[in-house]
Amino acid sequence: MNNSILSIQPLSFPWQTSDPFLFCAFHHDNYPKGNGQMGPTASLSGRNLGSDFAGKDGWSMYHGQTVPGFPAHPHRGFETVTIAEKGLVDHSDSLGAAGRFGNGDVQWMTAGKGVQHAEMFPLLNEAEDNPLVLFQIWLNLPKANKMVKPHFAMLWHEDIPVFTHTDEQGNRTKVNVINGKVGDSTSPAPAPDSWAANPENEVAIWTMVLSPNAEWQLPTASAGVNRSLYFYAGEDMEIDGSTVKKGNVIKVDATKATTLKNGSGESKLLMLQGKPIGELVAQYGPFVMNDNAEIQQAMNEYQNTQFGGWPWPKHDHTHEKSRGRFALHADGREEVK
Fold first, then answer.
1. Torsional class of 288: left (φ above 0), alpha (ψ -120 to 50), beta (otherwise)
2. 20 to 30 A Cα–Cα from 25, which one of 80, 91, 128, 247?
3. What are the binding positions for Fe cation in this chain (predicted)?
4. Are 213 and 263 in contact (CB under 8 A)?
């Protein structure tokens, strides 16, 4: 058999990635009903508020104290691709841009020379639970683009193409093509200064849903391209004849066609692929540069300028409860869904 598997490793937190990606944070929180102020109805006693990552009762507040999420914090030198598979995210940033997105939407933000943003998880449903399933992927920027102007874009789920494959037994595999191309399905354009903007870098970000017993063969990519499969939901499947359980990352040789054969339940995977940037990486928290001197410069500039300051009333800013999905850009342009 043409076995493409290079390694199989248990997933850590955050998920381990390969160049050009830095890591992927996966959040699966079974939040309770909302309390009318977009926080949880449940008591917050016993939680380390301000830094709650323990997963008590199946959910965390993270750095939020009343609404779960991540109040204002800085970034420089890379990009965030945030896939809100389920639940909602309230975005606010130092450029004056804002948005509410979720339930399949994706936000692509180039931090570039520096931006602050807040990502809060408003619990709008007061009659039922508010589950959240979210990936935040950190995609590196090459040295030439680390100090570009920040950029923020929404990829609404209505605009993300879905490739569907039906096997000989009638079982289906669906691929959400967030970046890249599968068959005739081509993603929306990535951020303009992204490593993904050059098709020669073969960056692909796909989420895959395999129905029970579905079988599909991934298309190949060029030599030297890194490709990883993150099996995050399901029971088990065969990958090139090897049985793999959920909770593992499978690195494969992208030059070989990889055959996925699902087990008896629905399975979900994330695929990250790309040509490596191949440059030195220096990282200190939210800053990713090429050497320690650049990290020190980033820290000094943030302390002196706050990357433009914070134009919102609170660091854990949330939008009006009544608002639906929207994106307000720094130039004043607004998208409403």
1. beta
2. 128
3. 73, 75, 117, 119
4. yes
Q: Is pLDDT of 38 > 60?
A: yes
Strand-pairing partners, residue 70, are 119
Task: Report the half-sphere exposure of 40 (CA within 13 A, side-chain side).
Answer: 26
- Domain coverage including residue 247: 1-11+160-276
Cα–Cα distance measured from residue 7 to residue 239, given in angstroms and rounded to the nearest whole number: 12
Full-prediction pTM beyond 0.70? yes
Q: Per the domain annotation, does 331 fall within a domain?
A: no
The letter for the amino acid at 297 is Q
**Facing residues of 312 across strands?**
none
**What DSSP line would sit under 245-300, residue for residue?**
ESSEEEEEETTSPEEEEE-SS-EEEEEEEE-------EEETTEEESSHHHHHHHHH
**Domain check: are 178 and 102 in the same one?**
no
Q: What is the pLDDT of residues 62-99, one digit of tens each?
A: 999 999 999 999 999 999 999 999 999 999 999 999 99
| 168 is known to lie in a ligand binding site | no
- Mean pLDDT score, 37-55: 96
Q: Tell me the pLDDT tens digit for each residue of 160-215.
A: 999 999 999 999 999 999 999 999 999 999 999 999 999 999 999 999 999 999 99
Residues 6+ apart with CB under 8 A from 179: 81, 187, 190, 196, 203, 204, 205, 206
CATH number, position 197? 2.60.120.10
* 73 labeled binding residue: yes
Q: Which amino acid is at 64?
A: G
Is the domain of 27 the same as that of 152? yes
Least Cα distance to 248 among 232, 237, 272, 268 occurs for 232
Q: Which of 253, 230, 234, 250 is nearest to 242 (CA)?
A: 250
Two structure tokens written together for 318: 């949330």
Same domain, 66 and 145: yes
> How many domains in the chain?
2
Whether residues 153 and 31 share a domain: the answer is yes
pLDDT per residue as tens digits for the range 274-308: 999 999 999 999 999 999 999 999 999 999 999 99
